[in-house]
What we know:
The chain folds into 2 domains: 8-151 and 282-374, 3-Layer(bba) Sandwich (FAD/NAD(P)-binding domain); 161-278, FAD/NAD(P)-binding domain (3-Layer(bba) Sandwich). α1 (21-33) packs across α8 and α5 (188-199) runs parallel beside α6 (227-237). The chain is built from 9 helices and 17 strands. The longest helix has 14 residues, at 94-107. Helix content is 21%, strand content 20%. The radius of gyration is 22 Å and the shape is globular.
Amino acid sequence: MASEMVDPDKLMDVIVVGGGPAGIGMGLVLRDLGVDRFGILERHELGASFRRWPKEMRFITPSFNANAFGMTDLNAVNTGTSPADLIGNGHLWGRDYAGYLGAVAAHYQLPFVSDCEVQAISRRPDGLFDLRTSQGPLFTRFLVMATGEFQFPNETPFPGAEFGLHTSRVESWMTLPPGPRVVIGGYESGLDAACALIARGESVTVLADRDTWTMGEDWDPSVIIAPRTRERLQKALATDRLRLRPGTRVERIERSGEDFIVGLAEGESVVTKLPPILATGFHSGTTRWPKLFAHTPQGHPRLTESDESVRMPGVFLVGPQVRHEKVVFCFIYKFRQRFAVVGAQIGRRLDLDLAPLEAYRAKGMYLDDLSCCLAKCDC
């Protein structure tokens, strides 16, 4: 059967799906490479996930304008901007960071399309990718998925989880009903919730399957909490209203009259009058596209050394889902190091000059040697 004729106005060299830091950062690399025709599609508005953070949530990675010293702001998506300089804040709120992304997109005139949901993706016999979107069909030679995680919360980690409240559904911790709280999950979002609730005067119990707050053999911030979170945690513990229970695995939540019963693997139960807070993480956005990505048993996308799908050549992944064995690119300052790696692969196939990418390498934003990521600090 003959393929549908492609409208030249609908044909792109590269389409990026997702309008967060990964999508905007990747768009900047494509702009620097001189890609003629590319677009960034976002199903909501630019920076949508950050606009939906709880009002009190702030970045755990500090922002500082160090461009004059040859170093890039940890939260910048390219080498020439600084959220700290633009916003004037060292630990940004989500809405601030969304504003930074919007300013960057406007300044560099990125071809951004909001309210454009990708509904279906297929590959044509001629090798082009066919995207059916809420704004009509589009076609592209290469596809970069930058769909993030925040919009895909893990809300069903165990039976009865529907009785809980996932952290991503909280607009503000100040507006929740008062009373003692149980938080399930001891990583960044769980401890952020606990500290916010302690700050408003509540008592909180954190049920965590592992200790993420004690420095041990693990040092990577993908595994343990950030220094800012440890600092907040010490202040919360000093109130004597915070109880941390590491090594506690939740198996279920049940409703009994006005109580919520949190069943633990050890056979014990924790009873609370208010819905437990679920800090149970997020799914990879790639799971929506099983034809594009193969996944490990743990749910991680299988990628080549250049972050290309092993299942569908021509499809690349950028953002917090990228990982290579023990190296996890889950924070902005980490996953931005792979934009140029993807850009180099696309640029070679489009026969473009890759020299502009050396500016990224000079600023630590072109990481193609992962061996340097496994060195532990001496102190």
